[in-house]
């Protein structure tokens, strides 16, 4: 395993973990930690490193976010298919809300007045994103955390750029209103 691969993964890991935490939703969040899912994504990346053509940091970041989304969707389907009532199940999962690297990345979603984001603010962001429609949450996270352009998001979600701009604007207004409450 090359040190360069480790460095490249480490460079994107805080953003990937923040994306996972904010995208996973309440159901999956009660069952898994973002660290477990991020570890699985990194393990998959390292196992398939020979099949991945490195085209730069943006492409790697995009691949990591897509892999993370796949893992989240798979876990959510698993929980729904097994009809598990995650509200009744007590897990031993440690909530890594004290992880400064996740909070650093989440600051990109908060306003300047919330720069000193703490665990309570992170939970408010999670709750606000949980209340959004899937498309709104995905557009906000792809634009703010993944750093994807409107064109990249439109292509990935099979929408027009104008539609993505509209969704992003409405979603950010909703997010700001929720965080201001």
Total helices: the number is 9
How many separate structural domains?
A: 2
Number of β-strand runs: 0
Q: Decide which structural class fits the backbone.
A: mainly alpha
Shape: globular
Proportion of beta-strand residues? under 5%
> Mean pLDDT, nearest integer?
78
Query: What is the percent of helical residues?
Result: 55-70%
Poorly predicted runs of 5 or more residues: 90-98
Oligomer: single chain
Largest sheet, if any?
none
Distance between the termini: 48 Å
What can you tell me about this protein's structure?
Helix content is 69%, strand content 0%. It has 2 domains: 89 residues, no CATH class; 71 residues, Winged helix-like DNA-binding domain superfamily/Winged helix DNA-binding domain (Arc Repressor Mutant, subunit A, Orthogonal Bundle). About 5% of the residues have low confidence. It is mostly helical. The longest helix has 25 residues. The N and C termini lie far apart (48 Å).
Jot down its keywords.
181 residues; mainly alpha; Arc Repressor Mutant, subunit A; 2 domains; 0% strand; globular
List the helices and strands and how they pair.
Layout: H1 3-23, H2 25-31, H3 34-47, H4 57-81, H5 100-106, H6 119-130, H7 134-144, H8 150-157, H9 161-180
Helix pairs in contact: 1-3, 1-4, 1-5, 3-4, 6-9, 7-9, 8-9
What's this model, at a glance?
The protein is an all-alpha fold.
